[in-house]
Amino acid sequence: MKKGEIKKICCIGAGYVGTPTMSIFAYYCPHVDIVVVDINKSRIEAWNSTEPIDFPIFEPGLENIILSCRNKNLFFTTDIEKSISEADMIFISVNTPTKKRGIGAGKASDLKWVEASARQIAEYARGYTIVVEKSTLPVRTAKTIEKILFDSQNKENNKKNKTFSVLSNPEFLAEGSAVDDLQNPDRVLIGGNDEFAIEALSNLYKNWVANEKIIRTNIWSSELSKLTANAFLAQRISSINSISAICEATGADIKQVANAVGLDSRIGQEFLRAGPGFGGSCFQKDILNLIYLCNFYKLYDVANYWEGVIEINNWQKSRIPRIIVNNLFGNISGKKIGILGFAFKANTNDTRESPSINICKDLLEEGANLSIYDPKVEHFKIEEDLGIRKKDLNNNDYYGNYQICKSILDVALGSDALVILTEWEEFSDILWEELILKMRKPAWIFDTRICIDFNRAKEAGFNIWQIGKIQNKNDI
Ligand code: NAD
Ligand code: UGA
User: Fold this and answer.
1) CA of residue 91 to ligand 1 center, whole Å
2) Which of 133, 171, 175, 423 is catalytic?
3) What are the mean pLDDT values of the chain's consecutive 10-residue runs (476 residues total)?
4) Which residue of 75, 182, 201, 303 has the lowest C-beta tally within 10 Å?
């Protein structure tokens, strides 16, 4: 490999980060061949699907990018050995969920997929290979990866002349806006101390990112910056959600408060939308990871501080079913309640840690008969997340029942209430005057995203509860 020149990239992990990231690399670096590998055969088949295209992840704008590069300089395969052995640079982009069992369960990240990736690289790589941490990792994970790789390079029978350099290059994309985030990043962060490797990775980014936006740090700062960024974003959401409850109690309006506060340039307008609690695969996991690190380094007060962010999030999720029950005369047993939105945010089919899961489970516990609609989440996923198949509902501990619907109208038929849990754009255009005719009265809307046309729904005759807003002006 010539100085700074990368011809072949392999990315381990064809998920929400691996595929969009590598697709953008392929799009802007047509001179580089990029192979995305995964142990999940059906995921790879889906990325390779043609007529019909049936990609496993819904991400606006991604399909066109992939179709313009696929089988030209972007490839999807399960042939991990070949892809690693041919690569000059390898991205580790595998899942790092919270550990479910054993030491650190419930807090520490489960690094078994990262370790497995490092071992695959150690075994199959040839010559000089730059290994890039793309997954979000606890601080000092690079040490573990280096240990595994350097042990293999130092073996006497190193016939493949393996040598490695490890960099940290965390990803800051958000689902639903991944393509835009990748094309126009606020910054690209590269942590490491091998100048040659850093330059090689920077040169790739420079094909579409301005040099000033590519910042370099030591490897531990890079790993910690990623956890910190997510913790700060989540902290803002817990902060505004805590204020939403004060608004409901006092008559202040959360949108007005968020706007007034956010206009302070030191604070800014972003991430001040009150909602049903943050979801997604990363915020909770990364804060738990930070808490685990704090405890490991005996920084118990710091750990407690970050615990608070998660506690408020859990509290926000749990107070919504209580509000619904209270407003429906203290009883929802046998009542039909429509759920609009199951994804953890709009413009994604991802349901990981979606607040909808907890809220639906709590409503089922109260005996509700739920009808659930989401424009992008597959039906089997909703069943999987609720942890209970529809056909088993009569023989289990749950008191309620649910059905998955194909339209908003199906959800509304005979319902007492509609609960908006994801801010899909189509929910802002609902013809409430038509929908109310299909519902039982008094008909309720519980809008946890403040995304409906309030005046139209009010005129149609709905009772409306919105997060962070006073229900009845006479109460103040
Ligand atoms: P994901 O679960 O969607 O994808 C990970 C993929 O890695 C899976 O398809 C899995 O089969 C594959 N995999 C696991 N071990 C493998 C192995 N040994 N060999 C080959 N393939 C293997 O996860 P994701 O959402 O893409 O997240 C990946 C990482 O990126 C996580 O650390 C996450 O914290 C971080 N991250 C995620 C986002 C996001 O928006 N989802 C954003 C920034 C960072
Ligand atoms: C988040 C970060 O925004 C990304 O920078 C980061 O790369 C990513 O996590 C990660 O590491 O996985 P993501 O979880 O995809 O991205 O989506 P966000 O837009 O951050 O939303 C997360 C959750 O917070 C959603 O449930 C969303 O509805 C909620 N949210 C967001 C609010 O309730 N209010 C807001 O103002 C913003």
Assistant:
1) 11
2) 171
3) 79 98 98 98 98 94 98 98 98 94 89 96 96 93 92 81 95 98 98 96 98 97 97 98 97 97 98 98 96 96 98 98 97 96 97 98 96 96 85 62 96 98 97 97 98 97 96 58
4) 303
